[in-house]
């Protein structure tokens, strides 16, 4: 397996490119609602990316996962893993740090040593989490990103319908949501 870790310069470029060219997939006049009582310890662990709104930093990524681990200082280590081009393609990882930023809200930086610079932090708002923390819907106020995450590589049609409803209620354009190939269970 080929493995490469994104360098800080690459991540910086991706973040700046995302800010400049990111398409807004939501009507920003619609108020976003987040999970008011996000159980951070329950949210930790491995999540599979089931669907996403296209973004420059995940271009050509399949088999995407995100893994969260709480740190003693209250912050959260984040490791995003992508397979480039195919489920058996080369692995790329981006490592970051998140910090709580309000009810159901995290601020994430993939340039942790510069996380004090506000323009290098991304909004990561948990819009919905299912009972048992098996499925989550995440977005940001600008609507430039959005994800459906699950604890397994596949979800039911009912779960997908719930995720789509959450996005719709938060002003997202459902026609832009794309499914992400995952390896079968």
Automatic annotation (TrEMBL):
Originating organism: Lutimaribacter marinistellae
Q: Which UniProt keywords apply?
A: Cell outer membrane, Lipid-binding, Lipoprotein, Membrane, Signal
User: Where, subcellularly, is it found?
Assistant: Cell outer membrane
Cite the Gene3D superfamilies for this sequence.
2.40.128.20
Where does the record place the Lipocalin/cytosolic fatty-acid binding domain? Answer: 38-182
CDD domains recorded for this chain?
lipocalin_Blc-like (cd19438)
Q: What does UniProt give as the signal peptide span?
A: 1-22
Principal place of residence:
membrane
InterPro entries to which the protein is assigned, alphabetical = Calycin, Lipocalin_ApoD, Lipocalin_bac, Lipocalin_Blc-like_dom, Lipocln_cytosolic_FA-bd_dom
Subunit and partners: Homodimer.
Role description: Involved in the storage or transport of lipids necessary for membrane maintenance under stressful conditions. Displays a binding preference for lysophospholipids.
Q: What is this protein called?
A: Outer membrane lipoprotein Blc
Provide the family line: Belongs to the calycin superfamily. Lipocalin family.
């Amino acid at each position: 397996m080929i493995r490469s870790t994104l360098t800080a310069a690459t991540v910086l470029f991706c973040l700046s490119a995302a800010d400049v060219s990111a398409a807004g997939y939501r009507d920003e006049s619609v108020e976003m609602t987040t999970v008011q009582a996000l159980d951070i310890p329950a949210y930790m662990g491995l999540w599979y990316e089931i669907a996403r709104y296209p973004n420059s930093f995940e271009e050509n990524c399949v088999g995407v996962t995100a893994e969260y681990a709480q740190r003693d200082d209250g912050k959260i280590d984040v490791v995003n893993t992508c397979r480039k081009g195919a489920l058996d393609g080369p692995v790329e990882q981006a490592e970051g740090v998140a910090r709580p930023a309000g009810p159901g809200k995290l601020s994430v930086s993939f340039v942790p040593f510069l996380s004090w610079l506000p323009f290098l932090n991304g909004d990561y708002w948990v819009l919905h989490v299912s009972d048992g923390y098996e499925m989550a819907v995440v977005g940001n106020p600008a609507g430039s990103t959005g994800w459906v995450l699950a604890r397994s590589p596949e979800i039911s049609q009912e779960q997908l319908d719930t995720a789509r409803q959450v996005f719709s209620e938060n002003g997202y354009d459902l026609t832009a949501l794309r499914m992400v190939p995952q390896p079968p269970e």
